[in-house]
Amino acid sequence: MPDSTIEPTARPRRSRTRSRNVNGRPALVISTLKPHQYDLRPACASLICPGCKTWVPITGIQARQQKLVPHDTGRAGKDPSVRCQGSNRLIDVDVAYETWLERLQDGGAEIASRRPTTVLPRPFTPRTVQALRARAERTPAGRVADWKAVLDRVDAVDIARKRMPAGDAPLDGPSVPMTTLHPQRPAC
Known about the structure:
- It contains 3 helices and 6 strands.
- The longest helix is centred in the last third of the chain and has 23 residues, at 140-162.
- By secondary structure, it is α+β, with helices and mostly antiparallel strands.
- The protein has helices at residues 97-114, 126-137, 140-162; strands spanning 28-29, 38-39, 46-48, 55-59, 66-68, 90-92.
- Among the domains are: 28-114, no CATH class; 126-160, no CATH class.
């Protein structure tokens, strides 16, 4: 029978295992981890595996001997099936549930105190308030009236720009074109 060409993928993790296998590594002491790296709630006791940095259930949290569930390093059904070296490692739970919960809440309060406060807008100056009021009071008719009042000065500036400067034209440079140039592409 030929070998399968399909590469084995990581299996879904079981929350409980009845395996008697024990990892040869020394027991992992919970008190050496930070409070946010493990969860001691009886319904979902778990911790971050030091080997693969994924959340793994703890088997037998109420029993005499606790250990990590056998698990693969990848995501279930997607990554290659590679057994983590931290599987079946014994766990030494030396922190009480109440102590862990208290440390976790204290850590959350500490983090909240380090976060920056919301940015407050600058206070309004009297000039800013005056400009905002004037903007709110303006109507479309008022804007047209303002434009008509300035239109004569704008026309005068445009005429002054079109006038030629007094004096002789430069001798060594090209003449300045007075009409708008519209270049054409050469025919191929």
